[in-house]
Design a protein that fits this description.
Length: 408
C-alpha cells in the first residue's frame, strides 16, 4: 500500500481519542453525505416528474404527427395516405380536425380549440388517467359526446351531471356573408359533456369531439388538420419518420414527440440542470470545509510531520497524506450518501413515504425514477470537487514545513 494512503487511512479510521479535529472532519463528511444523498433524491424526483408529465402529454401527443407546411388542412384520401393507414407497423392511425370555436354554456362563453378525432384515438388505454371528472366517452348509443379540458370547465362552470344543459359550439359559416341575422353566419351545434381532463395549460383549453361532429360544426366534409401515428412496440420511430418525410416531401412536416413539444422538453431539461447546479454549489461549500479540517489536522500533526521529514520523507509524501485524507473524507461521505439516497428512493417508489399534499388527480406521492447515469454524475461531481479541495489542502500542508522542522 502507498505510504501516503496508509498514513492518511490511519489518521481517519484508526481508534483514537475524540478531538475537535475529528469532530470537524466528521462534520465535513456529514456535509458531503447530505449533499450527495440530496442530489440523488432530487434528481430521481425530477426524473419521476418528467416521466409523469411526459406520459400525460403523450396521451395527446402522438409518436409522429403529419401536418401541411402550408394552409390548415389537407386531403387524407390520397393513395399514399391510404397505404399508410394499412401499414402493419401502426398501432393507431388518427385523423384530426382542429379549429378555434366559441363555446357557450348558460350565460358564459369561452374561446376553445375544438379537436375532432377518429375512433383510433380511443385505442390509448391511458386516457382515463387524465380524467378529473366523468369518463373519456366520445360516443354512446349513436350520440356524440365531448370531453373538455379543465380550463374550459372552470371558465364555463360546466356541470357534467346535468344532461339537460349541453355545450353550445359556434363556428363561422364559410359561404354566408353579411346576413341580416348574425346567428345565420355561424354554425351552432349542441353537445353533451361526458368528462373533464386535465394535463397542462397548453391542452386544457381543448374540447375533444368525434371527427364526424367536428366536420359538421366546422363545415369541413373531407379534409383534416393532421394525422397522428402511433406505432407498435419495438418499431424504430426515427426511421419511420425519415421514411414518411421522404415520401411526403416538403409539402408536409412529420414531427416526433420532441419536435411537437420542444418547449416542454427544454423547460424540463433546464429546470433539472438548474436544480443540479444549485445543489452542486451547496456541495462545493460542504466539500471545501475539508480545507479547514485538514488545516487543523496539519497543526495537530506537527510532530508527526517533523518526524517523517527527519526520516527522509519529502514534500510529495507529506502532500500525499493530506490529499488522500481529504479524498477519503469526501469519497466516504459520497458513497454513504449515494447508498442512503438509493434506499430512500426505493422506499419512496414502493411505499410513497412523502406525499404531495392535497388532492392530486394522477399521483398522491412524489414520483421517483432512478437512472444509473445520475449516480455516476453525482459521484464524478463529488470526486472532481474533492480533488480540487484536497489539492489545495495538500499544498497548504507543506507551506510552512521548514518552520515546523525548526520549531521542533
Amino acid at each position: 500500500m502507498n505510504t501516503s494512503i496508509y498514513i492518511a487511512q490511519r489518521y481517519l479510521f484508526s481508534r483514537k481519542k475524540m478531538h475537535a479535529i475529528n469532530i470537524i472532519s466528521g462534520i465535513s463528511m456529514l456535509g458531503v453525505f447530505v449533499g450527495s444523498a440530496a442530489l440523488i433524491i432530487i434528481l430521481s424526483v425530477f426524473n419521476g416528474f418528467e416521466k409523469v408529465i411526459l406520459s400525460l402529454y403523450n396521451n395527446f401527443t402522438p409518436e409522429l404527427k403529419i401536418e401541411p407546411t402550408r394552409g390548415k388542412t389537407f386531403d387524407p384520401n390520397t393513395p399514399y395516405f391510404k397505404s399508410l393507414r394499412r401499414n402493419e407497423k401502426l398501432f393507431s392511425y388518427i385523423e384530426a380536425l382542429e379549429e378555434k370555436a366559441l363555446v357557450r354554456y348558460g350565460n358564459r362563453q369561452f374561446i376553445a380549440t375544438v379537436r375532432g378525432v377518429s375512433k383510433d384515438f380511443l385505442k390509448n388505454k391511458q386516457l382515463d388517467s387524465t380524467i378529473q371528472n366523468g369518463s373519456f366517452t366520445l360516443e354512446a348509443n349513436n350520440v356524440a359526446y365531448a370531453v373538455i379540458g379543465s380550463m374550459v370547465q372552470n371558465s364555463l362552470a360546466v356541470n357534467i351531471n346535468d344532461r339537460y344543459a349541453a355545450l353550445q359550439l359556434y363556428s363561422p359559416r364559410r359561404r354566408v356573408v353579411n346576413s341580416i341575422n348574425p346567428e345565420d353566419e355561424f354554425v351552432r351545434r349542441p353537445i353533451a359533456v361526458s368528462g373533464v381532463f386535465s394535463i397542462q395549460q397548453d391542452f386544457d383549453d381543448i374540447v375533444i369531439t368525434p371527427l364526424v361532429f367536428a366536420r359538421d360544426l366546422l363545415d369541413e366534409p373531407k379534409d383534416v388538420s393532421s394525422l397522428a401515428l402511433n406505432f407498435k412496440k419495438g418499431i424504430n420511430i426515427n426511421q419511420q419518420q425519415q421514411v414518411i418525410q421522404q415520401k411526403l416531401g416538403k409539402a408536409f412536416s412529420v414531427k416526433n414527440r420532441y419536435q411537437q413539444n420542444t418547449e416542454l422538453y427544454k423547460t424540463l431539461n433546464y429546470e433539472r440542470w438548474f436544480t443540479f447546479l444549485i445543489l452542486t454549489f451547496v456541495l462545493i461549500i460542504a466539500i471545501f470545509n475539508i480545507i479547514g479540517s485538514l488545516t487543523m489536522l496539519v497543526l495537530d500533526k506537527k510532530k508527526d510531520i517533523a518526524i517523517l521529514t527527519s526520516l527522509g520523507a519529502g514534500k510529495p509524501l507529506i502532500q500525499g497524506i493530506f490529499f488522500f485524507e481529504g479524498m477519503m473524507i469526501s469519497v466516504t461521505g459520497c458513497i454513504a450518501g449515494i447508498i442512503v439516497g438509493l434506499i430512500f428512493c426505493i422506499l419512496q417508489q414502493h411505499f410513497g413515504l412523502v406525499k404531495m399534499g392535497g388532492q392530486m388527480m394522477v399521483i398522491d406521492a412524489y414520483p421517483v425514477d432512478m437512472k444509473f447515469t445520475d449516480f455516476i454524475l453525482v459521484f464524478l461531481t463529488v470526486t472532481g470537487i474533492s480533488v480540487i479541495a484536497s489539492g489545495i489542502s495538500a499544498r497548504l500542508s507543506v507551506k510552512g514545513l521548514d518552520e515546523i522542522k525548526q520549531d521542533l
